[in-house]
Design goal:
- The structure is a single chain.
- The chain is α/β, with parallel strands linked by helices.
- 44% of the residues lie in helices and 14% in strands.
- Helix 1 packs parallel to helix 2 and helix 1 crosses helix 12.
Length: 285
């Protein structure tokens, strides 16, 4: 089949990403890396600490600051238009409070991709970053900026929001990029089916200037469920390995309960540890 190019695909899901954080820490402990990583929303935000090989960082700062109003709160939303505080989450935290190791990220062999959604077209925008420089932070913020509770983020002449709206689990994109042996980490259990967003009826009002964005929000469940079907087909054929929660993660998008976050993280660790031999065999290591 030619050269093997390994890829890691990380779904978002806000604080459900704590499951992913547990999986990634087990990967670090066992020296498991990839040729490329693509993350959406929380998948990108939490995945960058994996690329910088900072075991425990995602768990540590989420547990420490989950109740901090500067991190995530309706107070932020009212005062700034962003539920997740721009200054605190994307600048104060990684630069001062729990420092993100940019040098280690830059020196990683993995290529790092982030997905956002163009609000004018309703289509996904993909960017790869060899280094955590330039508009890396703002593109990351755009990818994780959920509709209705975030301001539009302007990056590189584009108006962007949450990548999960247009490409929630970008396996097909990664395959087209040449990654032919992929592990997909989802934050939904086997058998999950997404329902239509209950806020869809107000999307044409909130995004009156951006009808394609309103349409993408209304049709997200269709896209998402089709992606799940595609992933299931690839998994059945043995060409993709999927790591998913064994039961539903009982977490809110803005979860402030440290114990629930801990349980989600530990469940990710448990699944990865249980399947470690299978993961290594799949990757040929």
């Amino acid at each position: 089949m030619g050269n093997i190019k390994t890829g890691l695909v990380l779904e978002g899901g806000a604080m459900r990403g704590m499951f992913t954080a547990g999986v990634l820490d087990v990967f670090i402990e066992n020296g498991i890396d990839f040729d490329g990583l693509i993350g959406v929303s929380a998948g990108a935000c939490f995945g960058c600490s994996y690329q910088s090989w900072q075991k425990g960082r995602t768990y540590r700062y989420n547990i420490k600051y989950c109740r901090d109003k500067r991190y995530c709160s309706f107070r932020n939303l009212i005062l700034t238009g962003d539920m997740y505080g721009k200054k605190f989450c994307y600048y104060d935290l990684p630069e001062k409070l729990d420092v993100f190791d940019k040098e280690a990220f830059n020196n990683s062999r993995m290529k790092f991709y982030i997905v956002a959604t163009d609000v004018e077209t309703g289509k996904p925008v993909y960017r790869s970053f060899d280094k955590a420089e330039g508009d890396f932070t703002e593109f990351m913020r755009a990818s994780a900026s959920m509709p209705f509770v975030s301001r539009i983020v302007r990056v590189g002449g584009k108006k962007l929001l949450d990548g999960g709206i247009s490409d929630s689990i970008p396996l097909e994109y990664f395959e087209k990029e040449g990654y032919n042996r992929n592990i997909v980490v989802t934050t939904r259990e086997l058998g999950y089916t997404k329902e239509k967003n209950p806020l869809s009826p107000i999307a044409p009002l909130v995004y009156a200037r951006y009808p394609n964005m309103a349409k993408a929000i209304a049709e997200r469940h269709i896209m998402y469920n089709r992606q799940l079907e595609y992933i299931a087909e690839r998994e059945k054929s043995g060409e993709v390995l999927v790591i998913r929660p064994e039961k539903p993660l009982e977490l809110k998008h803005a979860e402030h309960d440290e114990e629930k976050l801990r349980v989600a993280y530990e469940s990710g660790r448990a699944v990865a540890e249980k399947r470690l031999a299978e993961i290594k065999k799949f990757l040929g290591i």
